[in-house]
Amino acid sequence: MDGVAEGEADGDHAPFPDDYASIQEQLLGRWPESAIQPSLERIDAIMDLLGSPQLAYPVIQITGTNGKSSTSRMIASLLRAFGLRTGLYTSPHLVDIRERIEIDGAPISAEAFVDIARDVGPYVAAVDERMAAEGRTPVTFFETMTAIAYAAFADAPVDVAVVEVGMGGTWDATSVCRPQVAVFTRVDIDHAEILGDTIELIATEKSGIIREGAFAVSAQQDPAAAAVIRARATEMGATLAWQGDNFWVVDRTVAVGGQVLNVHGLAGEYDDVFVPLFGPFQADNAAVALAAVEAFLGSGAFALDADAVREGFADVVSPGRLEIVRRGPTVIVDAAHNPAGAQALAGALAESFAFTHLVGVVAVLGDKDVAGILTALEPALDQIVVTQNASPRCLPVDDLAALAVQIFGEERVQACARLDDALDAGVRLAEEADTYAASGVIVTGSVVTAGQARVLLGGRGA
Fold first, then answer.
1. What is the DSSP string of 268-289?
2. Which of 119, 226, 361, 447 could form a disulfide with 335 if both were Cys (CB 3.0 to 4.6 A apart)?
3. 11 by DSSP, 3-state: which?
């Protein structure tokens, strides 16, 4: 659907101001990224006016359902270990929109963001005016951020950009690039109202990132998704490498602060690789990331320097992904926001943490499979505190509590209308448990929930 609709104030946006806080406020007032408009017309027009900065450097583009941000961060860290200056574009942000754009491992500075935004602004305004004259949707928040990111990478300049799609693939604003390597984490059902309600439909949208002659690297997939990805690669004449066939995790050992992997890559064996992230899914993400870098640096034809690989993985950080933000009791935040992510989270908690009493603090967006998320979390949690986050899309706490009671039983459920009160309640329940020294709190259900919790518990954004 195109045209002015709910979620948009109007198409007449003033030029970007001179200070970062005002720019961020104005950007967040644009058409939201949750209200997808399946068209590349607006972003194509902006990039043409800018001189196509997204074509000024090679790109590795990442899609999938869960694990995109972590895999993107691993890829960028590995590339830096090999001496390349990287651009990294991820979404959504936890606290500050500058988190989405990193240059050489650090979020873009406020000053640089202002300069780039003000350079991009007139072209965004020109497309806004055209859309308004035709009674159509103006440039969205995500499209504007994508244009700023691509311009910032050209301005830096970077040697390579690692770009996570916002949603889907074919129609995602990031897909104005021409990736040399297309990367797929596992494809599951999510955003069904936009991408489709079957694995085949979702995979079809995501497989659009494979371009002619590219190298595609994929995690293990449902057979239906694998068939779609394989067909697209064949159509595009792309080389395709599969986890399990062409690369794989040989073995893994849980370690303090993460895990140690032995990985069989596309062209080499890499042992004693420490990854400071938790869970078997992060081991799979690491294998995919390593294969993507092998493909980028040498088309998978030769092994990489193992010491550089170890250095790159050791330096990985992934905020809001099983991130410990407090001790005594341990409080962890995680951005799991769909059943597959919640199931992976539950498994990682059981494997990597020796909690004997675990309290969940959960706030979920109303357009998600809330029952599926709660069902996946139930075996991992002794008690649950349901609440709301700041998103207008958040499921009301009373509705979430009613679902939680059905799944957990009334005696295991508490409800708090505010996230700060819910955090206090979760910590108190953990402290009151008989096993205090081994009690913990996991805050999850949404990226918004994870981001708010990080701020409330003393974490920092960009």
1. -EEEEEEESS-SHHHHHHHHHH
2. 447
3. coil
- Burial (CB count <10 Å: 0-12, 13-18, 19+), residue 106: exposed
H helices of 332-383, in order, are 339-352, 370-377
Going residue by residue through the chain (462 aa), what tens digit of pLDDT does each one get? Answer: 343 333 343 444 556 888 999 999 999 988 876 666 678 999 999 999 999 999 999 999 999 988 999 999 999 999 999 999 999 999 999 989 999 999 999 999 999 999 999 999 999 999 999 999 999 989 999 999 999 999 999 999 999 999 999 988 899 999 999 999 999 999 986 554 555 568 899 999 999 999 999 999 999 999 999 999 999 999 999 999 999 999 999 999 999 999 999 999 999 999 999 999 999 999 999 999 999 999 999 998 999 999 999 999 999 999 999 999 998 899 999 999 999 899 999 999 999 998 999 999 999 999 889 999 999 999 999 999 999 999 989 999 999 999 999 999 999 999 999 999 999 999 999 999 866 568 999 999 999 999 999 999 976 555
